[in-house]
């Protein structure tokens, strides 16, 4: 872990450690399935399919925009605008169910009336579309040392920069295989998945540290206590506790180049 002074330390991120109340240390589960299909300029940015949220796809995005998924509005100010992925999911559900209801397909299954299911799907799809229409906007303002999150121009939360971070999340299947998610998280923020599920820990971690460095925010490993945390912002008045052991060697001092993003 490298702090603002460039030294390394061993950071405890357990419930009694660094993270403030309201931020969970468990793997985030939410509605977000991917990143915007465009990285800047356009007012309408829709979430990509989760199928394409791989470390290779993320590396390509970073080559086109080194501040991805944000855009640099001005020096030390980064902006991300997006819509929930439930917008296209609701639209798809609405169209499919409306088609079934209009043509009477699937109205009977094994001589039982089932028309109510697609009719219910029409209502659910319409509700998902309407509820997903408000545009989200997240601003990282290092000039003021704060972040600001709003929905359709209405402020949801704002706070100090140490409450926003990139982290790895670990999950496993029934066969014991481990999969890693790379997620942009924050206090009262919707988790934004950068890499959906990957078995390539080193590549996913490398990309996560690169993004955190470019955006100048904290990075956390999937372990609660790890040497791989990179803390650039601390809460006001925070000091190193006696239980934090300084790391002797820096493993990640090498400068990252564009060619290093090839995974």
TrEMBL record:
Residues 1-25 are annotated as: Disordered. The chain crosses the membrane at residues 91-109, 115-134. Signal peptide: none annotated. Pfam families: TMEM249 (PF15158). Keywords: Membrane, Transmembrane, Transmembrane helix. This is Transmembrane protein 249. It comes from Odobenus rosmarus divergens.
